[in-house]
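Our consortium's second objective concerns turning raw sequence data into structural hypotheses that experimental partners can test. To show how far this objective has progressed, the report includes one record in full. It was chosen at random from the queue rather than selected for favorable results. The single chain below, 151 residues long, was entered without modification.
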Amino acid sequence: MLAVAIVVIIMLIAIPSMQGLRAERALRESYERFEAMVYKAQSNAISQQRTWVLVWDKGAILLQPDSLTAEEKESGAAEGGDTLTVGEDESFTINRPAALLAAKEVPGEWPFWRSGACEPVTIAYEGPAGIWTAQFHPLTGKGELIDEKPR
């Protein structure tokens, strides 16, 4: 009986910390999904020597070229584009502090120029696993988590 009681107590202590680890992992995965889109945008910009843009759309973040080539216009699709699906219970918000327009007028777009450089931005995520905020460096496009709170 004593051994069973000890096992039950250990389980009661371990379960909440296991749930916290799951929430942290899910939150980290959301950051990694977004970071993969940033890497692909930068990679496409450098390899194709043209501007690629992450565009915030309803329910998704789209990766698309700034302008289509003649071949892409003819075929109707850009090679290398991708989509990050955003669930109904999550959101990615972009803040472009270097934009010259008022905050309400700034389009939900983030360009990556052919050099791979980009505008400095802060991205905020909120979802069922928690929230995070990351700053992205303009020269490298690399993100740095500045706030992370799992639920």
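The partners drew two points from this record. The longest strand covers residues 143-150. The mean pLDDT is 86. Both points have been shared with the crystallography group to help prioritize constructs.
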